[in-house]
Design brief:
Number of helices: 6
Number of domains: 1
Largest sheet: 5 strands, antiparallel
Number of strands: 5
Helix content: 40-55%
Strand content: 15-25%
Length: 153
């Protein structure tokens, strides 16, 4: 069994179902203001077949040069890949685009069904596991992903 204190600062906080499937949420893997992070493979398996979800997770490990937008965490003794909220939304937008629900536009945001389901679950997870004051919500919004998205300073 993997001991979580040796892997990351992220801690499993709970599960929310999306379309009847469990998706795990974690505290941020750093000390800065941020939103909850999500188990990428579980999120992907809600919308795509298991083999595609595994490929998506493997591909996510190649993201970033100066930053590391994915992180390892432990859930039930197993190492999982977690991502911050903006990456989870990006994956859902990609799924929506691939399924023909939206057309991706650089200058506008389109909310397809996968993204909408994720955002509803994300809000539910926050209200259950990590409620934020207005000030904390604003700070997390301005710092989504923290140093993992921002990269080396």
């Amino acid at each position: 069994m993997v001991r979580p204190e040796f892997v990351t600062k992220a801690r499993f906080v709970g599960v929310v179902e999306i379309k009847g499937k469990p998706v795990s949420f974690f505290s941020p893997p750093h000390e800065e203001a941020d939103f909850l992070w999500v188990d990428l493979e579980q999120l992907a398996q809600v919308f795509v077949p298991e083999d595609a979800a595994k490929r998506l997770v493997k591909h996510s490990h190649n993201f970033g040069v100066a930053s590391r937008p994915t992180e390892a965490a432990v859930r039930d003794g197993k190492i999982v890949t977690i991502v911050p909220h903006p990456m989870a939304q990006g994956f859902c937008a990609f799924i929506d685009q691939q399924e023909g629900h939206i057309e991706l536009q650089e200058d506008e945001w389109s909310l397809g069904p996968a993204n909408l389901e994720y955002v509803k679950a994300f809000a539910d997870a926050h209200s259950k596991f990590m409620p934020l004051s207005f000030e904390a919500l604003a700070a997390a919004y301005r710092n989504q992903g923290g140093p993992h998205i921002r990269g080396a300073e």
